[in-house]
Amino acid sequence: MRQRVLQATIITVLLAVLMLGIPLGFSWLQLVRQNLTNDLNSILDEVRVDTETRLQEDGEIDDALLQRHVDAQSDLSLYISVTYEDNQYTAGEQPSGGGSSSNTNGASGQAITVAIPESDVRAHTASAWVLMTVAGLAALSIGVSVALWQAQRISMPLARLSRRAEEMGSGRSRGPWNPSGIVEIDDVAEELARSGAMLNERLEAESRLASDASHQLRTPLTALSMRLDEILATSSEEWVRDEARISLEQIDRLTEVVHDLINAPRSSQRRTPGVVELRTVLTQQSEEWSPAYRRAGRELRVQVPRSAAVWGSTGPLTQVIATLIENALAHGDGRTTVKVRRNDHSTVVEVADEGPGIDAELGARIFERSVSGRSSSGTGVGLALARTLVEDDGGRLELLTESPATFGVFLISAPGETDVDPEEDAYEESRSGRGHRARGARVRSARSGRGPRADMTPQGGRAHRTGGDDLDSLPQGSVVRRRPRSEA
């Protein structure tokens, strides 16, 4: 802003100097020449009077009389010539090559000529040029000074206004606005303050709503969790126990989401990613979504290596995978395949189905909020939110192919275990005799961020590694079966 004001003022002053200075300079030069001509005519009259007086007194004209007039002009190189009765009297140096001259005849018949050389004319005009140049530079310097003052006067309130807008965006406290003396800037500052106050009120209202709703959800979730714990402990039906266990896992995740909603308004920092075992996450998703796929007459197939640890957050990553599987169920067709590919540096989770795919026009904007297909009844928030959750953990969510629709979740690989450790083996054995204690151990493990190890083989068996990829295929609806609690 300061530079633009300075440039505009300098250009304006320069144009004014040129537009006014050129005609003024030309007029001044003409005035200087006119003054020189008037001076010559005045000297000519004085010489004429002196020579006529001398002749009327019966005297003679001599060079000394004329020399006195030459000596009286200190700033002009004067030349005077008087011709009388065939006699010529001169004083001064006769100019050569032009100049300015004036002549007349006296009453006694004398012819008088007064002249100055061209050098004197140029000297007087040059002084005029110097004066005009000094006046132009003075005007330009005054314009620059005014421009600097005006730029400082405008830029300082604008800088204060910019800092105030930045403080409002960062949520820092703002003091009262001191008037700047510029009405427009003060009006903008007042409107910005009103907008900031309204924005803070809306954000606080939304934060209170989320916190209140999340807080109110915890009570029924706790009651439901206790009821499912009771069913798990008392039921003798294996399928009831399995459904109760799966429901408890979903409630645990929902409780974590509620906890995040409550703490989100109080925290300004991003979460810190940890090590997440994809095998555990995908096992849970297979258990949860397989019944829905069976009811739709479709198949959900999950392929995951025995060890697939990544850097991320269990809750958000689970939400992302669930969103992709749900989209494949709602908008896709045929078999839905969830496949994990990894190397030492990165891991990608691909979710693909055998449906007609996504339109090219929609595919370019698939991750924008409020964008969904023509036949979709959703809000268009799921994929946009999923991409945000992945990016918060340093990963990426991309649409790999449009037909068939294939999404890829790119994550950073983390060091993982290749075999079941002895402690986990002991944990599995202890569950076979103490079903209720196994439930409590599972909850503690899930809340610590690790979760139970998923065994993809039937009870008592060991998974067989296929080829060199160490890749297991989870059959539809495969679950970790717990033995019924032994009766005392």
Automatic annotation (TrEMBL):
Give the residue ranges for region: Disordered.
Answer: 414-488
Name all Histidine kinase domain ranges: 212-415
Q: In its keyword annotation, does this UniProt entry include Phosphoprotein?
A: yes
Assigned EC number:
2.7.13.3
Annotated membrane topology is: Multi-pass membrane protein
Report the enzyme's class at the first EC level: transferase
Please give the catalytic activity noted in the UniProt record.
ATP + protein L-histidine = ADP + protein N-phospho-L-histidine
The answer to keyword Transmembrane helix applying to this record is yes
Recall the GO molecular function terms of this protein's record.
Answer: phosphorelay sensor kinase activity
Matching entries from Pfam families are given as: DraK_HK_N (PF18092), HATPase_c (PF02518), HisKA (PF00512)
Q: Which UniProt keywords apply?
A: Cell membrane, Kinase, Membrane, Phosphoprotein, Transferase, Transmembrane, Transmembrane helix, Two-component regulatory system, Virulence
The UniProt regions of compositional bias labelled Acidic residues, in chain numbering, are 418-427
Question: A single GO CC term, please?
Answer: plasma membrane
Instruction: Provide the transmembrane region boundaries.
Output: 12-31, 128-149
SMART domains hit by this protein: HATPase_c, HisKA
Which InterPro entries does this chain map to?
2C_sensor_his_kinase, DraK_HK_N, HATPase_C_sf, HATPase_dom, His_kinase_dom, HisK_dim/P_dom, HisK_dim/P_sf, Sig_transdc_His_kin-like_C
List localization entries: Cell membrane
Q: Which PANTHER family match?
A: SENSOR PROTEIN CREC (PTHR44936)
Q: Report what the protein is called.
A: histidine kinase
Which organism is this entry from?
A: Brachybacterium saurashtrense
